[in-house]
Structures are given as structure tokens and as C-alpha cells.
């Protein structure tokens, strides 16, 4: 039996599609993407358990499914708040940021500028924390700082962390080749094995590297030492050339890494 499609049905579908599209734009570039992926994995495991008749696994997943709606309200609270704020401003159809991939030359130029700025800041013993976004979006942390949205240059980075400036104490978050915000607040690492000699900047760099796949470049205000935090590990005492080599290894394709002549220093846990 063929049912006629009304104009209201088409309008209904378009509205729901627009809402789903807007929700995807809001969570893109945030940690919620990984959470959504995890939910799809759980759903796939549940479907497989039903197909294979795994009663115990199916029962456990059904029990977990009872608490998931409540957990989602807590986990996605920042995204829901952002969506409601945009709705109140009439910006429900305004898209979020669009990640921009960089070419090899642009990436090398970016790494050179960050490394040179780190050397200058280290020589002057100016504390700094620069976070480079990778696969996991850092939109939640960018919102805690002061918007900059400027192309990364040596001069810009030095000015952001100049003593007594409004953005000196926080972190500068870099997406692509642009500093999105400065003075950003980051989660501190709670690793009990961290040396007590490390200050807040190092703990914040480690914290963001533990919770995301971002890379943090830290310059000590006391010693001028350059460090890199990644995957919850801290590599300390890097020179400008060693910092370049480390960042090139992480942010450039395989041919560039293979042709690099810099020596790599093995990460040492803090």
C-alpha cells in the first residue's frame, strides 16, 4: 500500500536533518567525537552479541544502556550548552570551526617559527606553554582563553608570553598554523610519579597530553629549559634543533621524517 507523502512530512524530515547536522557540527573538533565513536562500538558489540546469542554479554550491555542517557547529559554538557547559546542568538545554522590541514612546507614553516620562538623565550627565561592540536579537537579549552586567531609567527608567540601581559600565564592553543586563543586553562596532570620540581606549566602540558593527543611545548620560567609533552610523557632539556626534530616527527609525512638529519632524544617520564 502506497502512502502519500505530504509537504509536512518533507518539512519534518528537513528539520530533523538540520538539527542532527547542527549537532554534528557542534561536537566536531571536541573530545565528544571519541565518545560518540565509543557509543557506536558498544552498539556494534551489542548487535553482534544478539546475533551470536551471547546472553551474558547481551544482558550486561542492556544494563549499561539504561545509564547511558543520563551519562550523555553529563558528558555532552558543554556541547549542549553551546547549542542552546547559539539557538538563543539565532545562530542555530551557523557552523562550527572547520579544521584546516597544512601542506608540508607550511608545516615546516610552522615548526620553525615555534622552535625559534621557544629558543628566544628560553634564553630570556620567559615561561610559555604552546599546545598544538592534532586529531582530538581542543575547542573546549580554546573557549577558556582570549581569542587571538592569528597566524603563528615568532614575534606573535613572544608577545603573547611577554611578562605581565594578560595572556602570559595561560596556554596558547594552535590549530593548523593559527593561534586560536591564548591564556587558556588546561587540566593539570594528577600523575603521582611527576617530579615535585615541575611547576604548573609542565603539569598542564602533561595534563592536556594525557587527555588528548595534543602536543605541548613548555618553556620553564626558572631555567629556560624547553620541554615537549606528548602521550602523558615529558621530554626535557631540548635544544632548538631537537625540538624541530621532535615536532617534525609528529606533524610531517613519512618522507620528511625519513630525510631528517636531526637526532631524536628518547622521551623520559617526568
What does this structure look like?
Residues 91-99 and 255-270 have low confidence and may be disordered. The protein has 2 domains: 7-88, no CATH class; 104-259, 3-Layer(aba) Sandwich (YojJ-like (1). It has a 7-stranded mixed beta sheet. The chain has helices at residues 7-27, 32-52, 55-75, 77-88, 104-123, 139-142, 154-160, 200-211, 240-251, 254-259; strands at residues 128-132, 146-151, 171-175, 178-184, 215-219, 226-230, 233-238. The protein starts with 6 loop residues before the first helix and ends in an 11-residue tail after the last helix. The protein has 270 residues and is of the alpha+beta class. The relative contact order is 0.11. The protein has 10 helices and 7 strands. The chain is elongated, with a radius of gyration of 23 Å.
List the helices and strands and how they pair.
Elements: H1 7-27, H2 32-52, H3 55-75, H4 77-88, H5 104-123, E1 128-132, H6 139-142, E2 146-151, H7 154-160, E3 171-175, E4 178-184, H8 200-211, E5 215-219, E6 226-230, E7 233-238, H9 240-251, H10 254-259
Parallel strand pairs: 1-3
Antiparallel strand pairs: 1-5, 2-4, 3-4, 5-6, 6-7
List keywords for this structure.
2 domains, 7-stranded mixed beta sheet, 14% strand, 10 helices, elongated, single chain, YojJ-like (1
